[in-house]
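Journal club side-thread
Mid-discussion, someone asked how the predicted structure for our own chain would compare to the paper's figures. Pasting it here so we can look after the session.
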Amino acid sequence: MALPLMPKATAVWLVENTTLTFDQIAAFCGLHPLEISGIADDEVAIGIQGLDPVSRGQLTREEIDASEADPARALGLAAPRVQLPPRRASGPRYTPVSKRQDRPNAIAWLLRFHPELSDAQISRLVGTTKPTIGTIRDRTHWNITNIRHQDPVSLGLCSQTALDEAVTKGRARLRAKEAREAAAAAAARREKDAAAAKSDAAVKTEPTPSEAAPAESPLAGPAPAAAEGAFDEPPSTDSRPEPANDAAPSDETPPT
């Protein structure tokens, strides 16, 4: 529930100028009923001047009269007279023109001292763009020689609270990334070990050549010899008669 501006001063005025119950005033101002009782007894909020919520447009007289008539009824804030523009939920942060020349210095400081921050976080903190962050990181910025490392908080580009929140988120994201990488490396190592163990088991189960050859029984006799002439050359099939040996010379003369 939305609360009025300056709740204690508003409670002081309601205690002094209305007949509302302590519970109604406490619920409207966001205080404890005992604190409202202390205000009525001049024990709490001593010296605080009451603030009229009717003149400030936070409460209407009709709302007060209706709640005084019904002690169980809760007070409600009046509708604002001026409609505020909707708050922009996304987009780069606006940086005043007088401080825009300090953004490169702040980006260089963040890149050096907080490398865990992402480009999107730096862009939201100082109201810059990712291409500008990339040129400063790569030292290709047109004014890189004049860029100095300066704290964006001291330059007034962001608050210390916003910087601390961004750093906390960046470190948490970095730890989560390291944990994921470590888990993936461990899983890959386990798979490699399992494959190596499976390969070793397969090698062990295969029989060696000496184990595969059948062993000779000591009771078996010697191997049978090859049949005689089994490996002799086959007889020649040539039917031509062999030439006769030269006859020895004789003393007889052939007849004429």
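Post-session note: The mean pLDDT is 81.
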